[in-house]
Amino acid sequence: MWRFFVAAVLAALMTGCGSDERKPVPRRKAYARVELPDTAMRAADDTPLHMPVNASARTECPRPGWLDISYPTLGATVHVTFTKAAGIEELERVKANRMQRLMLNAGEGESESGEFSNGHGFNIYIMKSEGVATPIQFLATDDSAWVVSGAAYFNIKPGPGAVDSLRPMVDAVERDILKSMGDLCHK
Fold first, then answer.
1. Which of 29, 26, 53, 25 is nearest to 182 (CA)?
2. pLDDT value for 123
3. Distance between CA 73 and CA 54 in Å, rounded?
4. pLDDT at residue 116 is higher than 80
5. How many CB atoms lie within 10 A of CB 76?
6. Model pLDDT for residues 9-41, shown as the tens digit of each residue
7. What's the rounded Cα separation, in Å, for the pair 37 and 169?
8. Which of 2, 57, 138, 148 has the CA that lies 20 to 30 A from 17?
């Protein structure tokens, strides 16, 4: 009798452990899922250069030479300035000023940067930083007259815990900035 009881318990335990099904288990902490904007682009209005922006983003020119690209669903705004220099000296001074600003905004956290030419005469520098309110910054110049600079600002408190929850949103805005800079050209 005792052996029959032990065999029955072991058989019950073995059938309970042998399933190939993987049932989802809820996590203790979940992050909100944000709907990312589509990848369609349109030309920004009232800018001195041709710069495409995401078709679902709102644009506003708060003053001449400035463009704010807002992503309401992401809580993000890309602030862009267009500066026309009077000569090479002024162009170099403006570029140096903007580069210093990029470095200050990046803080002391980890950053990745890259440079490329877009085929329309503009050289672009992009910096991506972790754990700051401005995770993506850029500088573009045609090395003769124009400096275009900007930073994506997320209205969310930065920090180590926010990095993973922001990643899809930062990647979506970065994708749009890269597309905008790739197609930036004179009108």
1. 53
2. 95
3. 13
4. yes
5. 24
6. 767 666 666 555 677 776 666 556 778 888 999
7. 9
8. 2
